[in-house]
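Q: Could you write out the predicted structure for this multi-component system? I'm mainly interested in how the pieces pack against one another.
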Amino acid sequence: MQKIKFETDYQEGAHPKILERRLATNLEQTSGYGVDVHNERARELIRRAINKPNAEIFFAVGGTQSNTIVIKSILDPCEGVIATSSGHINVHESGAIEATGHKVLTLPHHNGLLDAKDLKKYLTAFYANPTYEHTVQPGMVYVSNSSEYGTVYTKNILKNIKAVCGEYKLPLFVDGARLGTALTSEASDMDIKDLADLCDVFYIGGTKNGALFGEAIVFTAPEKFKLKNLRTLIKQQGGLLAKGRLLGLQFEVLFEDGLYFENARHANKQAMKIKKAFTDSKIPFLFESFTNQQFPILTAEQNKKLSAEFDYELWEPLEDNKMAVRFCTSWATSDENVEKLINAIKNL
Amino acid sequence: MQKIKFETDYQEGAHPKILERRLATNLEQTSGYGVDVHNERARELIRRAINKPNAEIFFAVGGTQSNTIVIKSILDPCEGVIATSSGHINVHESGAIEATGHKVLTLPHHNGLLDAKDLKKYLTAFYANPTYEHTVQPGMVYVSNSSEYGTVYTKNILKNIKAVCGEYKLPLFVDGARLGTALTSEASDMDIKDLADLCDVFYIGGTKNGALFGEAIVFTAPEKFKLKNLRTLIKQQGGLLAKGRLLGLQFEVLFEDGLYFENARHANKQAMKIKKAFTDSKIPFLFESFTNQQFPILTAEQNKKLSAEFDYELWEPLEDNKMAVRFCTSWATSDENVEKLINAIKNL
Amino acid sequence: MQKIKFETDYQEGAHPKILERRLATNLEQTSGYGVDVHNERARELIRRAINKPNAEIFFAVGGTQSNTIVIKSILDPCEGVIATSSGHINVHESGAIEATGHKVLTLPHHNGLLDAKDLKKYLTAFYANPTYEHTVQPGMVYVSNSSEYGTVYTKNILKNIKAVCGEYKLPLFVDGARLGTALTSEASDMDIKDLADLCDVFYIGGTKNGALFGEAIVFTAPEKFKLKNLRTLIKQQGGLLAKGRLLGLQFEVLFEDGLYFENARHANKQAMKIKKAFTDSKIPFLFESFTNQQFPILTAEQNKKLSAEFDYELWEPLEDNKMAVRFCTSWATSDENVEKLINAIKNL
Amino acid sequence: MQKIKFETDYQEGAHPKILERRLATNLEQTSGYGVDVHNERARELIRRAINKPNAEIFFAVGGTQSNTIVIKSILDPCEGVIATSSGHINVHESGAIEATGHKVLTLPHHNGLLDAKDLKKYLTAFYANPTYEHTVQPGMVYVSNSSEYGTVYTKNILKNIKAVCGEYKLPLFVDGARLGTALTSEASDMDIKDLADLCDVFYIGGTKNGALFGEAIVFTAPEKFKLKNLRTLIKQQGGLLAKGRLLGLQFEVLFEDGLYFENARHANKQAMKIKKAFTDSKIPFLFESFTNQQFPILTAEQNKKLSAEFDYELWEPLEDNKMAVRFCTSWATSDENVEKLINAIKNL
């Protein structure tokens, strides 16, 4: 029998409302490559949600693709992108950024987050180095919200980062593969308007929050960037979907009446229940997360017991045969499965 | 009112059977990135269809992506890919191949097809050139079937190309974005088994033949290639879909009981009706095509009349204000719309 | 015994004046990477020679390197460089431009030269194509003077090209690997000031005109380009010579009192003698050249006879066993060797 | 007045013996691009010096270029090169490796050296990670000898690294920009034969050891690599010098009767005198080096005094206004200048 899966937030299909819309529009005829009414309307809904009537919005199929497109479009040949060592582009994208010719310049992370002080220190030292012209030039800053460890940026942390970016004229890019769970987390004090105000470009992750696939790349201040050829670049990177309306259509559904955040709130709620169960059982965490990724540290025996019934990700082997693992929830995580997991945790 | 569209073969959604399967499996839990039962089964069905039990099969989201992945995986840094000047990778992929560092080495096309004699002549001259080491080395050969002009390769033409490839140890890659309409065309004397025998790698286009999106990349003789890191390469190119089962699932449906070829036959049948209508009206063609793309040459007045009611692609302006245009059919082209078009042609 | 070589214009070492200066300065201590008095002075001499006090000048080791650096620094990711099919970057640089991710967009050549009308026609058609955003965008124009076939641009031809470039806001780049023989040719009506006025960036070839190696890249209107990181880019491309003063020093000698043009005039003078000898013997040419490359067409017997005594490049096999060949002269070609060749031609 | 320079080991020209040979051969006629008797003989001399009659040897102009060529030639698209965080390719080559599409995978350094245990630990963890196919694959190992901090590998350290490389089938590449001073250092127990035995490819640095420029890339076991197109790759990277004999000729002189090691011994001897002077004055070092780079830590006042008379590199600001600096010696460092420096150190 198949185990219950808490491996990832992309193990089910799409939210039923998206499927319904797909069915209803299947035989509509539209032009290809994202030039259609669904894309237009989705862009308009997002512009309204972030309160930026001039934002330029592009849709891509996945996260690695979105990161590559944004970063390749911004950097000059000798520039690199600053990220934490834990950043998705640094560790989990198979070298997609380097494949476009750019180095990822890494700074330490603090529970997965970038610290403005580290950034400032790095940039000060960089330009103080008399041979800096022999090194990769910092060209932009990348952060993920929520981070790869489930943690979130507060308004204050992001403001401080933005201030340093401003001082050095570096665009700030927020990877929002899990933006929904970040902004609806109890640890967050930002909404999507705040976020849009605090960065130059970000993407709104659909894949991990109820869409079949799809991310919305948002340039909040398009006048700062050369976007004339951005659709050509998306094509060059293999991301210009022929039946492009599939992307627009999904974001229409997600942003028509708040489904995007509703999905994320559901995922967070289920995660908080699981978190509480581990905490009640005195099981510690690798990171303190208030979003849909939870990283408990299991003993070998606990791991053996839980894994008999559940699938989850083995994150990192620790000493004494302990194992940090990851449980993920999503819009699709059912109360029933969460109950089963909580019971199993109680019986560890 | 919206005009009836004959612009492309990707203007509608997916075949209803694919939508049904999507619905039925939406809440299944599977691992991400194409490691699931649907991918496994789709691969098995394709292996059976081509009669190659050892073929290695990978799924990608789109055509440009598939071309880039295959070509990047095969070529060494100094090698280029030989294609006709009309080849999709040369003209219509925004420089995706060059973006991976490789030149497209062009030969003339004959109604969109590569001629083995041109290939042989080029290779002979290449190695006879005393300074050939200062130039891009030929590393593989690319052809499209059906071609960008709707024409198809016969077994004999392809055999001759394969023979030259063999002599120079160049892998032969067939871009099958429109493989279905090629193999079911009345101009074709090959089935998919023959095709698989006559090339080293090809892809089976889903996007233009009933899928929402998706192409199946098939290495027919995997032992000739280094495929160990191919999934990593797909990830690097932004093509490893998180909810990867969407790809497998669609090819399951398409190859379970012949839907793939049924879709293509339908598209061709509708195209042949349209072709006959133009021919009956003495309207000439830019290329003689027996597949789902038809390229009639319209006078300015004919163009004006038809475009009032129908959308189609303006292909190439010709002298005397004539215009070569493209009409495309697909699995979704209805008898009703074809009838309307035929009537309009009659009344030109 | 070694044959007399007319193979290339880089088969000898450097002009004696350069060697002397090398010896005289060998134990000077200077900072590395081109930040030294010799580079400074060489830049100043060139600025004066072209009458552009604000020109930005960079030195690189070779021609392929210079082309790559200039083109990579100017193009955006989706842009390509327009060149004739015979352009050095298209045929003889091992795909160096593509290795930086950019396509070479080719137009026909006319005896090795680009025609403004072809350029205009191409650009008009490009932007008239409704799907142009799916193709590589034209980003700059490249021409070689003298061309790969020994021919030269007149002021008028270049003006017309520049006018089209201006209309489409495309920078014009002149590859001057053989700039000296172009500007001192009897077929030229330009001096180096005219050339600098008629392009946005060019390089002055040293390697083929008396230097050991080295090319001077000149941005005539630096305010149009992002040059802040150009030295970093040169480093990235492996072209920032540690003992960078070697480059500056050579251009100091070449531009102090006209040695650069003196060398070229000598090469052309010797070539014209050889040209006359072939003409007198009724031997035809593949191209009519008034510079240091001559392309006579030899019968098999003539070729056999001449090649017993002389080395030259076999350029292109023609029908009837004829062979187009190339004879090159340079600053170092001696009267004695030219006399021997002329005698041999007379005796064919 | 110009200060005495101890900035780098490339601030003077070439060893007089090289200049003499340049003069003597200046008007020889040879074919271009390194196909000549000087290159042939230089290769033969190096093969004899390392006792590898089958070694394949290529010459390039500089170090960044050599690293890029070797690494690009070996890695597949998804592979990266393992180096210490202090490795030249990671910090001082302007992203040249990333510009070819490859990530530099960094491990901690121990006084600039790689530790076999770190390597083993990294590789074990890499393949134990269940999602390793989503990350850059380790494809080769890079070390510098002597290192960027002047330290050297002993036979034992390198053997251990080689053993781990063997276990994981990773080629080992030694950057020998400063190979001469490494192998002649009192801290080294290897000669060049040992080194050649302990790696798969390395380069012999000429630029920093008496040549005008030039590095000899040596594949010790060419049968393990695809070298067929390596010259084409060198051309593509802008490194195939037209007057290629300049490279061969210099290595002829360096390897005819031991000049290469003589130069290095001289540099080390001068450095050891300087080291002793600092030690005698109780001035500490950032790294303990037995080669031609010395890294004393100066107080603000010492720095002020010394810099009035000498140029040296400011390496790294430390606390209490101290500054780590670098003094470099070379084949050209005179006794006189060293004496002046030693006196100045005594008077600090």
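A: Regarding packing and overall arrangement: The mean pLDDT of chain D is 97.
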